[in-house]
């Protein structure tokens, strides 16, 4: 099992998402686990769409709840939902802007195999700006049926998995009308990922590159 070593000064993570609620769905339990264990962790979050709408308000309240005790800095942009390929330059500029203002030990982002074009497009932008950073690609259950075989797991305590489902319901009222947006779906996937890593519940992530530091010296990738 590989740990996340918080460097002196508290450490930092970055969160990238195409839409409000992606981060909470894909990594909410992991964020709760990580931030609870490391008060003061710096969290820089960038969401490409939803700015200026009720969804931005939801995202601010939700991430504050999912990152308790963190030094959270969230930016929500106004790129149109479902149109990322047509706004590629703005998205790239935003990702590079995030890179310029933070040097995270760990980065959470969509993964390149995601069937949603906005998620997939953002995933492809990430390594162009974050070249020496450990990226964990979160998964989002959806109509397209793109769940694959992730290789990295964060086990979740049962109370954390329950808290994730409850916070998703509480903080995103705009999404409750979606037929898949319910406690059963969130806990169901977490239960399956838990089976795969010998835990009750878990969140899983896709990793395309992993740099080890087995000598235990200077931390390069932030995960060993
Ligand atoms: Zn999304």
UniProtKB/TrEMBL annotation:
It comes from Streptosporangium sandarakinum. It holds the Pfam family PIG-L. InterPro entries: GlcNAc_PI_deacetylase-related (IPR003737), LmbE-like_dom_sf (IPR024078). Keywords: Zinc. The keyword Nucleotide-binding does not apply. One of its GO terms (molecular function) is hydrolase activity, acting on carbon-nitrogen (but not peptide) bonds, in linear amides. This is LmbE family N-acetylglucosaminyl deacetylase. GO terms for biological process: glycoside metabolic process.
């Amino acid at each position: 099992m590989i740990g996340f070593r918080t460097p002196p000064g508290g450490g930092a993570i970055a969160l990238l998402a195409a839409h409000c609620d992606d981060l909470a769905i894909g990594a909410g339990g992991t964020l709760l686990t990580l931030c609870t264990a490391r008060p003061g962790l710096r969290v820089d979050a960038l969401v490409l769409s939803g700015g200026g709408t009720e969804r931005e308000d939801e995202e601010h309240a939700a991430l504050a709840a999912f990152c308790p005790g963190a030094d959270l800095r969230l930016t929500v942009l106004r790129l149109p939902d479902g149109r990322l390929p047509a706004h590629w330059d703005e998205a790239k500029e935003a990702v590079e802007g995030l890179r310029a203002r933070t040097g995270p030990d760990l980065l959470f982002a969509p993964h390149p195999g995601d069937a949603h074009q906005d998620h997939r497009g953002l995933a492809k932008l990430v390594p162009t700006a974050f070249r020496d950073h450990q990226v964990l690609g979160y998964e989002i259950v959806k109509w397209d049926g793109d769940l694959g075989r992730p290789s990295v797991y964060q086990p979740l305590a049962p109370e954390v998995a329950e808290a994730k489902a409850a916070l998703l319901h509480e903080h995103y009222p705009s999404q409750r009308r979606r037929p898949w947006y319910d406690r059963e779906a969130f806990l169901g996937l977490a239960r399956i990922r838990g089976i795969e890593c010998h835990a009750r519940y878990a969140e899983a992530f896709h990793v395309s590159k992993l740099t080890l530091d087995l000598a235990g010296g200077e931390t390069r990738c932030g995960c060993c």
